[in-house]
Amino acid sequence: MKRILCAVLTAACLLAGVATAQAVDVKISGQWDFAFGRHDNTGLVRDSTEDHSVAYQRIRNQIHFIASEQLQGVLQFEIGKTFWGRNGSGGSSGGALDADGVNIKTRRAYLDWVVPQTNLAFRMGLQGLTLPNAVAGNPVFDADVAAIVGSYKFNDMISLTAFWARPFDDRGADPANNRLQDEMDMFGFTLPITGNGWSVTPWGMYASIGGESGYWNYMNGYWGTSNLSSDIQAGRADAWWAAASTQLDLFSPLSIKADLMYGRLDNEKVGDINKYGAWQVETKGWFVTAALDYDLDWSIPGIFGWYASGDDKGDAQEGKFGRMPVVGIDQTFYPTSFGFGGNQSIMDDTIISSTGMGTWGIGAQIANVSFVDSLSHVLRVAYYRGTNDAGVVRDLGLLPNFCGEQQYLTDKDHVWEVNLNSKYEVYENFAIFLELAYLRLDRSKDVWQDMGRYSGSENAWKQQILFQYKF
After folding, report:
1. Quick check: helix, strand or coil at residue 125?
2. Which of 86, 162, 313, 448 is most buried by its number of CB atoms within 10 A?
3. Which SS3 state, helix, strand or coil, does residue 26 take?
4. What is the rounded CA–CA span in Å between residue 190 and residue 63?
5. How far, in whole angstroms, is CA 460 from its chain's centroid?
6. Side-chain half-sphere CA neighbours of 219 within 13 A
7. Residue among 187, 181, 355 at smallest CA distance from 280
8. pLDDT on residue 22
């Protein structure tokens, strides 16, 4: 009898699975990346002991469970950047002999649904959230995060998106189980307005940052911080941003794009030392970037530039800094492909900064150059400098890298960078990328002479090839 009952239950489960499969369409997409090559001195310090060879991969697969045009669930799994030959488990390991690393991660898991008979749509769960940008990414936030996003389309010209996101909730940070300051919440909106040959997107965001949330450790520990506490847990803070992105195509083939942003973060007691022995800081600043492109039949030549405010020596002594605060620093600014984000998969990049805060720069490029079918090139030259007061380093001895900088640049330091990037489309879903880049960082000896390994000037380069399968 028990065997019969088990058989009936098994059959019922199978039939239920078949019925569910019939009701839901399943679609799979993904991106598989494999990178090889060499690099040198990506840390831009004289005592660098880096491994010059590059051999790693990253696999992302996304599954869509589609009930209708109004309802779907999405899961994305990632086998993160796996270094070939690296032993151990988890993280970037699992590429050694026997290849048994435990490194599969849930990257996204969200639900899309539309309110019946309306133009109101929601997305809730772990998702990719990018704030508006027109030129080279958004340096404030572009990352995966737990959020609820609602969007409403008024007409073909205007729509509105609003969101609540919780990037941090470090419930274990306070040994006294004080849950009052363990969360960080962000609330924001975007308002895209599109006309004939032009578009503008105002946006704004507010963040309530708990002192125990983990945000401070994330920001100060992202690249490492000198002369600020290694355990950066500051008091409660409020932050806000106001910005707009715009694009003008009225004079096609000429295109003009620009982003303008201002942000401010205020701590409870600026300049004081909190219970963790860490500074409580205020940081505020602005950021502007623009690009002009001319679309020809065989290429797209263009110029681009940006300016981000920097720190002042006098203010820094009081715990006040002049850079715009940022939150999600996942390669969010990419005017170049070596010093900054690059925006191309797992190639080496961001050896200067993820966000561009505290720098200004100008560059020229010629993109989409093609003399052979399926093969295109981008040639880019850029010059950039720091906007931070040299006295912050020279006189105060600080390296306050809390805005996603790998290198803290002062107004006495400058960088030259050259990129030559190529793409060959082997098949519709398979492409090969080649990136060649050279970068020279010239630090002022007068500023950096007492900072040990950071003194002097350094060169860096990379020559890497990427095989990418997208489906």
Report:
1. strand
2. 448
3. strand
4. 28
5. 22
6. 27
7. 181
8. 54
Strand spans (E) along 392-445 = 414-425, 430-442
Determine how many CB atoms are found less than 10 A away from the CB of residue 451.
16
State in Å, rounded, how far the first CA of the chain is from the last one. 49
* Cα–Cα distance, 79 to 60 (Å, whole number): 6
The CA-based angle 149-152-154, given to 5 degrees, is 160
**What pLDDT is stored for residue 213 in this prediction?**
81
**Category of 177 on φ-ψ map: left (φ > 0), alpha (ψ -120 to 50) or beta:** left
Cβ-based neighbour number of residue 102 at 10 Å: 10
| Segments of the chain scoring below 70 in pLDDT | 1-22, 46-49, 88-92, 171-181, 220-235, 269-280, 331, 344, 401-403, 452-455
According to the 3-state scheme, what is the secondary structure of 207-221?
EEECCCCCHHHHHHH
The token pair at 443 is: 């630090």
Report the pLDDT value the prediction gives residue 54, as an integer from 0 to 100: 87
CA dist list (Å): 465 to 57, 79, 423: 12, 20, 10
Run of H or E including 4: helix 2-23
pLDDT of residue 129: 95
Task: Kindly state the greatest CA–CA separation across the chain.
Answer: 89
| SS3 state of residue 394 | helix
Say how many residues make up the chain. Answer: 471
CA distances from 257 to 13, 88, 120, 135 (A): 56, 46, 29, 6
Cis before residue 301, ω within 30 degrees of 0?
no
Contact 290, 136 (CB under 8 A): no
